[in-house]
Design goal:
2 domains; 12 helices; 359 residues; Rossmann fold; single chain
Length: 359
Amino acid sequence: MSIATRPRVVVADDSALMRRIVSNLLTRGGVEVVGTAKDGDEALAVCDRERPDAMTLDLAMPGMGGIEVLRTLRGRGADLPVVVVSAFSPSQGARAVDALAEGAFELVPKPTGSGDVSAFEQNLLGKIQLAVRNGRPSRASTRVSAGVRGAVGAVQGAGGANGRAGARPARRGVSRALLIATSTGGPRALATVVPGLPSPLGLGTMIVQHMPAGFTASLAARLDRASALNVREARGGESWDPTVALVAPGGRHLRLGPGGGAMLSDEDAIGGLRPRADLLIEDAAAKWGDRLTLVVLTGMGNDGLLGAREVKRRGGRVLVEAEQTCTVYGMPRAVAEAGLADEVVPIGEMAGAIAAEVA
């Protein structure tokens, strides 16, 4: 889709009122609504016919619901960006996390009152525009940014054989602490990486995933069921444990206390983010020095860049997800194009790369 072309979107919701509300606000925002659907079967049929740039999708629909639609699209290998527009609350966090893990691009809660409509409109338009801009159909799967291409060339020129970009090899036989930072597309990326990691793993693992308060406990529980590591939402006071991966709770910063253990903070959001990965990364770099490995996965923005600078300053290692497998190549791009990435790794190879690094 060219930049000048209006995004073409399908709206799927079992409520005729909600279909009208979403369609009207998207149209006002410069989006062309090319079809609507009242259930999952109809949504798939309309998408097959119209070949839209994106779709908005309710999860609670009669017959084939939203989760089944996402699984069907995934099973077909479809790259259609889907923004889920549904009723959510912290008590329904598991359903939201399931949607993200099944390939949803982003989540937008339905408005709960008339006062929420303006914020809902801005949120939805922003997510649709981002989804269309970052949808894989608009990018060649093998495209590599100039900064990463230069790093790959340097490694290959130095005799690198594995095709991954890297500034220097890891020191083998040295146990390391692991930090993972991610945002948009992160639940799906984590669902690929974390279950592939062994337990025990290095000195311990901590994860920052940008999510609203109330949803990260469900993310941790989902990862825990599929993983050898014990994955838990951090509550504060935990020590680093090679058998445990701690997930920063949505709505709070995860920091390290004076003794190096987990500490939760209600400091102000930074750049609109709480948790902010940079804070934890800088704390961990100060504690672990050259025994820290930072992994930056898919996500919008540049959270992790300042932290990566500190990791490198103290001799640690930095791995970033390759552009071709990112949902949004923002956070990894910022680190890679700053020349801070030791390796640039596709998501399917990341668990193996981490295991080799962290020991």
